[in-house]
Amino acid sequence: MVQRRGQPQFRASVLAAYRNRCAVTKCSVVEVLEAAHIAPYNGEQTNDPRNGLLLRADIHLLFDLNLIGINPKTMKIVLSEKVKMSKLYQSYDDQSLRLPDKPHEHCRPYVKCLELRWDRFCKTNGIAGGPVS
Asked: Could you tell me which residues come within 8 angstroms of residue 121 by beta carbon, excluding any fewer than 6 positions away?
């Protein structure tokens, strides 16, 4: 597996910001937690921890596939209809995203990145409104 430049530092920063707990599931098994990019990786400049969320591996995959979204206005998790059908994930729908604590405010997600990601989630899932919902 090829490692992206700056990935170890990005992961360490995001792990610290979220205190080793998934922002969705609260899972604390570090081995299955991944530093997910909100705006897609596009070189080292996108490895800013404010462009990251700490997600359990399966949640990260669903996020990357636009099957899980985050409403930037409410900071709530929204599941696609496909994922809502799964009992494994139903409990996360409309749950608040767990954000970094005050000592790591400089690591809170960039709203603009969340808005762009939300717009993509809405388009992929046929949801009207985009970032202003």
From this structure: 66, 68, 69, 70, 78, 80, 127
Which pTM was predicted? 0.88
Q: Which helix (H) or strand (E) holds 124?
A: helix 111-124
Distance CA(109)–CA(128), nearest Å, equals 23
User: Residues, the chain, total?
Assistant: 133
Report the distance separating Cα 44 and Cα 74, nearest Å. Answer: 29
CA-wise closest residue to 51 among 2, 115, 5, 3? 115
Contact indicator for 75, 95 with CB cutoff of 8 Å? no
Residues 6+ apart with CB under 8 A from 57: 32, 33, 34
Give per-residue pLDDT as tens, 90-115. Answer: 999 999 999 997 665 677 899 999 99
Percent helix, percent strand, percent coil in the chain, to nearest 5: 45, 15, 40
Q: Cα 19 vs. chain centroid, distance in angstroms?
A: 15
